[in-house]
Amino acid sequence: MVTCKECEQENPDKHKYCFECGASLRSDVPQREVTQEQADKLINLSFAFEINDLVEQAISAYSAILEGHPNYADVHYKLANAFEAKEMAGKAISEYQHAIKLNPNYVDAHRKLGELYSDEGLYEQAIEEFKQVLSIKIKHGYADVHNNLGVAYERAGKLPQSIAAYKKALSINPRYAKAHFNLGNAYLAKEAFDDAVAEYQASLSTYSRDPICYNNLGIALSCQQKYQQASAAFKQALELDPKYARAHHNMGNVYYELSEIDKAIGEYREALSLDPSDTETQELLERLTELRTR
Asked: What's the whole-model pTM score?
């Protein structure tokens, strides 16, 4: 290992320049200088690459900047964005962490890192990042961060905490459709069907073109045995997305409960044509078809 004389960072013997500060590690290697003007040009160039979806070039441009300016938190953040676009989660996490190390109050880096942790199933780490954002900017209302915190709690199996987080998001932005939807899902999981229906309806009052929300509203209404209302909700879901296999399945369930067997069979067949791997629908279709032939 070679110790950098500038920052005392340990580097592998083969390195010519310090990984941390970019200083030369050997007397026979000249110092590599990147002027502020050059760095600014590279940043502008890398933005252009990203706009044109040339992510590989963006990664190269950001990496070139960091060779001369390794302590640019913003560039580490942008490099993380590029790695994330390439679905290179490990490298993206590392760059977000590096940005945060350089700037512990980097709200966007904490936020993006939390979202990435959640996507990767690292829910406890996600929770900590979202909490960190909220501790940095307590005076500001981050409704989306509270919502994302709720999602992480819910995926981690912490339903009471998730409900509290969604409610906090809605106290900041009462018309936050996604938070109403997520709170409805949490209530549905809790079998609090009245509350679930109310939240789905609140979500749809803000954004009325979400087929999944209509589908989930239909499920909650079905659980209350309000089959006519559930039918209307599933029909709305299918009007928005005619190829929504699960909504066809759920519509079939409602028709069965209403003793409209032929219509139920038709919906199950449609669901199965859209999703042939759905064994539950296959079993229901076989059962009803056999019942109909008796």
From this structure: 0.66
